[in-house]
Each structure stands twice: as structure tokens, then as C-alpha cells.
């Protein structure tokens, strides 16, 4: 099969590799759409020692089951493979499973390839009328859905409903959409890149600004740098909550003095539970996350160029989806 | 009246000052017991620019109303004076009132004095049979009660019940007592000072250790330094929660990478709500916070020496209570 291989820092090779085969108790999926995530970019830049070269990256996949009893079933893929038996899994927090695996991290290859093998329980059926490309957005949307759910759970019931999302990439935009799907209407996105900001306003009908000094009782940091955490610390209202998604930088930025004196909660969030993934897929299928027409599609063969364009800030769309069969 | 005046860095003078008088809509209290808090020590060392000299410190007070219709009523004092009308106050989060005042911070003098004036709504009646010195512990116990309540609220319902408290001073010990009063039985306290640790074990019947590398799904940082936050970040179990009380250092120590990847919640906590204060007082009166015999009493005249002894680590009891009439 064709695959896009991460060969080392800023090196991606598109070439023929041995085809994926269904492992025991798993099914083979023909990958028809796979998104590029910020964490793929992080690995591509050589900043993620959990993803050593050579490796197939990519974990935002959708496609069609090939072979066996389910041949032809269109599915979107939850890339977290968990044990289903530990206390975390049994309490519905599969994202905290100590033996969790994610495709694109050893021992599992990723989805920047024509085929992928996955346990059946990780698959959600995509209804007719929903495109496979849109279905491939389930994974990043689920990350934000989970963060939005946690931060709203942490909120005092009598709090004002005003949210700030820092960062207008896919995770930030998805966080705004998730908050709105959860009846949190007043959402502002900070996005410093003018082209991205214009895209958010014009194509996605979001309230996006270059910066703000207003206060918000809900803040989602969808970037994860010291500077964005400093911003979150500054703008969270007394008694408010910050959800932190993603990992640009490992430390720094949190104003502990302000968090303490103003009683602000800072919530680390990681991926999603199985239920979050299913709920997000259903919200997509029901149209509760808007049109989801904010991605651009390229062929997997052009993947290396897509990474270069993303790195240079030349892409205004929040998401590039690669098609391994174009 | 006699008062202990903070005159500048490490300078405390015990002398005669103009007596406090009841302000409009307030009552005059004869202060009979007032505890020394870590924040008083912080101010004494010149580290709190919110408390400029000259100033009467002290905010953990109990005593007896003098004059007026309530003459002779024994009370413990909630030192937070709030507006009662803003959204924070109306939602029961008086600790977040934007115009909150606390005695010992301008414009209000503190309680290291023979008299104090307070609004009636800040007072809780102390029943016969409860000593005024024990009643003066309500304030620090309420700080920890509030932190324990918030961190237990943040906990996933199916979580294991194991808690770590970092720091075995009054706030740390009170946090352990509050957790136990909330049916959280397995509580370990880290206290590096051997004399304090022995006191916690022998006099307070607590599980206190010099250090640990075990994991806990609830951590209360009752110290608030970068090093204790680093410890909290390290030992919090995946999916767990950290409550942060007090402010030794303003920044540093939080391992954001771990908080994010292991989905740990970090809760800034500040003082208590009016309800927390009342609930804590009732728990003291009902004996649900144990014997509370872990303070030593000195006269207010000896206050300067008490601060010196605390600073030098010569005090094994978690709390010194000063008596302005001894």
C-alpha cells in the first residue's frame, strides 16, 4: 500500500510499504480520509519523542471496512485502543487507561496510509449522506467536545455563560462549536493569524478577534504554550474554569497567585472517553456542530507539501484532510 | 486598648492604641483568642504588599460581644466582609466578592488587639461548653473545609478514595480533618519537620510521613511553593484533582505536561463561603473535627516572641493562639 512515512525531522516520504493486515479480533479499514493534527506537526518537527522515525503518523481517520462480515461498512475511527478492563476503563474514562495505545505511536502505525487495522469496538458507523471527510473530523471534534464537557461540569451552576477559546485552529474552532452545541452561546475565539481569523469569521460564522482583555468565566486554551496559559490565567473570571488542551510547551505561564486568590480551576484534558467519541459522532451526524465545511482536501501523495504549508502558516483552513486514494 | 502592631519587616510592637469602636451596623467584640496564621507570618516578613505597616494583623478571632442588645454573646468571627449584593455574593460565593475586605488588611485593622468591630452577620454563636480558643480555630479550619469540599466535588464519582495533604501546619492538618469529616478515610500528610511530624502522629493521631512517592487521587497542597506544587503534580493520580491553598510562591512548579496527559485538575482555592464558615463551626461544635487540642496559647504581649519562634521552626504545635487579656 502507499503510505506517508515520517523519516526524521521535517522528512516525509510517500512510498510503497507492506500493506496493513487485520490483526486478530480486528478489522481492516480502507482509509479514505485522514486529517493532519497539531500533534502530527509536533512529531514532524522532531519534538515528540513518543513518535520516533520511521513511523506512519496520522490518527484522524475514516473509511470503509474491507473484507469479512462487515465488508463495505463506512466508519469513523476512535484511534485510542484501551484495555476495557482496568478501573479507568470500567468507570468510562478510557482516556486514562494505563495501557492505552493510540495509532501513530508505537506499537501502532498511523493512518497516513491506504489501510489500517483496528478493533471493531473503536468504529462508529457513518450514516449515508455524511461524507467520509466530514466523518474524519470526529477525532479532533471529540477532543474539544471532551474539554468543553469537563469545563462546563466544573462551572458553578449560577455562573454567567461567557467563554473564550484561545487559538482558532481545528481544536479551538471545534471547542467553540462544542460549547455552542452544549447551549453555551457567547463564545469568542482569539486567533492572531489574520488569514485564519478571517476564515473563522467569514466561513465559520464565529466571533474571532486578534486579542482581547475582557474577562470570561470559561476559557479553553487550545494551544498550550506558556503565553496562552498566561493569557488564560489573566482573563479567567474569579471562580471560573480553564480547560487546557494540547501541549505546545510543557511548563510555564500559569499565574498560580491569581488562580488561588481568584479561585480559578485549571483542568488538564486529554483526548476523550469512548462515550465522548460516540456523542461527538452523533452530534456531527445530527448537524449540531454546524456545516463542518472548514477543511481542505489534498491527496496523501501531496502530504509532505501540506506539512510544509502548515508550518509556514500558508493555510487558512483549520484542517487539511488527506485522501490516500486521490 | 492593647494591640500588637506590625511596624515593619520583622518588627512587632505591643502597646496601647485607641480602642476599636463599633462602626455603624456593627458590633464591638472583646477578642479573647486570636490565632497566628501563615499569612500573618508572610506579612511580618515583609512579603505581603497588601499589608503595609503600621497595621494590626490577625484574622482568626473569637470573643464576646460587648454592649448593645447582644452583650455577652460568645462568637467566632468570619473575617471576610463582603457586600452581600453582587452576583458572587448572591450565588453564595462570598469569597469571590469583588469588594471583599478581610480584617488585618486596610481599610480594616486586624484582631491582634483587645477589641474588634464586625458586622453582626459575620458572627457565629459559640455554644456553652466550647472554649473560645477552640472557636478561634474556625477560620483556618474553614479554609481547609472549603478546599476539601471543592476537591471532592471535582472528583470523579467512581474514584478511589486516597488523599495526600502536603504540609502539616494548621491548614494541612485541618485539611486532613475536613476530609475525614467528609468520609474520606485514607489521608496521608507530608511534613518534613520531624518535631511537627511527631506532633501530628502522637497528639493528632494522623498518618504523617517525611515524604512519599505513592500516588493519590486527591492532593491538597497546603503550602503553596513551587516545590510543593511540583510534588502535587507528580503524585496526583491520572484523573485526580489537586486543591491549592495558600501562597508561598506566586509561580512555578506545576507540571502542565503531566496535568494535561493525565487529565489532572488543579483548583485554586481562597478562604471559604459564608456557608462553609458556618458548616465548619457546626462541625467543630459537634466534635466532627476531633479534639482540636493541637494549639498552644500565649499572651498577646508575648506575640513578637511567638512570631520569632515560628520563624525559627521552634514550635511543634500547628497553631499558636494569642490571648489579649492574659
TrEMBL record, chains A, B:
The lineage of its organism: Bacteria, Pseudomonadati, Pseudomonadota, Alphaproteobacteria, Rhodobacterales. Residues 170-283 form the Alcohol dehydrogenase-like C-terminal domain. This is Putative L-galactonate oxidoreductase. It holds the Pfam family ADH_zinc_N. InterPro entries: ADH-like_C, ADH-like_N, GroES-like_sf, NAD(P)-bd_dom_sf, Zn_alcohol_dh. Its EC number is 1.1.1.-. GO terms for molecular function: oxidoreductase activity. Residues 24-128 form the Alcohol dehydrogenase-like N-terminal domain. The keyword Oxidoreductase applies. Keywords: Oxidoreductase.
